[in-house]
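Final report, results section. Input specification for complex C-07:
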Amino acid sequence: MIERLFKLSENKTSVRTEALAGLTTFLAMAYIIFVQPSVLSGKMFGMDTGIDFGAVTTATCLSAALATVIMAVYARYPMAQAPGMGENFFFVFSALPAAAAVGFTNGWQVALGVVFVSGVLFLILSLIGLRELIFNFVSPSMKNGIATGIGLFIAFIGLQQAGIIIKDPASAVKLNTHFASPDSIVFFVGLLTSAVLHARRVHGSILWGIVVATALACLLKVALPQMPAAVSAAHMT
Amino acid sequence: MLNTRFEFAKKLIALPPSLGPTFMKMDVAHALTAKMLPFVFIFLFMLTFDAIGTLIGVCEQAGFMRDNRLPRAKQAMVSDAIGTVAGAALGTSTVTSFVESAAGVEAGGRTGLTGLVVAALFLFALFFSPLIAMIGGYPPITAPALTIVGAMMMQNVVKIEWKDYTESIPAFLIIICIPLSYSIADGLALGFISYAIIKACSGRGREISWLTYALALVLVLYFVFVRSRM
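Structure output:
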């Protein structure tokens, strides 16, 4: 049944490969489960938007699962969906204050209404095929440029989130030279593990990098406080 | 960060938090007032460009493009749209395709079965929130994955026609502006505006469709009248 629905052999793949791919994608994007409620509730910025943290956590997982299932069964692509980064910041920093400025006391509900209406319009545009038109007239060079740019973007987000690239008042960004910090060690060990396994064509190389990095983080978390005070102080900066 | 953002999971399993506080709480009537309508269109713009950009990026990576077209593009976009509508009703902001899907594609994922696994894991995650919080809450663990994916997606750069400057300069603007503006939508917009102008002014304006010009015009108006006033 799975074979007939997804044409696995025609796509030169297998149940095992697909399951591993799904796990890899999930682990790469699982951060959104924690980031999204933190952003929407305002907790990340030390403010209170009025949106319940726990409810957003559940809403995020349910909407991600629903949208990804539709993409999987209806469009048959290995494309995962979840609340997008960027839109969530825009929600909290632009739409919500605007609703409050108009005088709506239920600002977050109005902002959700705005998202709802934009989704309905998007659905109509998709059904009449306008977006498909937009999609298909982009030239090959532009499409490959987009893929490349997004590649740089996600690597940039990763390097920043891990604290490898940090902000600098003069040049906007710079390299964090605290190479002996636990953050840097976990990152570089994880990166090189994935890179070497990838170069050796090992299946699930990215996932193994995550497993090794997690194990190392656990180890450092246990070991560092037991080290002489001077060493652990240096490592905890 | 190890000190502050990495905590051992205290327990493995917990019940999902209640959806009650946000379920069906969206206020559509007030969203349709004059002052809020511009935000509807900005969300629509972000959704369209993020969705298209991500779809193109990941599908190029997976080799799904046929003669520069994406089969079933409409179905893919409808999935994005339904996700956003359902997301707002449940209580979360715009749901869209995730570029991280490229990690799964790199691991060999080619069909919707990959997506079903992802969806199942999201439901599963509702019960294992403490463990996922441990891994997902500490970026140095997940950042290597993003970096490797970046390296993979970089391969597309050789498929750009670098000798044809009407193609390569707008493509380059997209490449550099997406990360530096920290926005896929803004990077795309700058690329599309420059694409129309460069084509039109170098005697090759007839190569591209009127839609490209219309889009560029809309984007210019959007930047001048909406974004510059925010």
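The mean pLDDT of chain B is 88. Chain B touches chain A through 161 residues (CB under 8 Å). This concludes the modelling results for the funded period.
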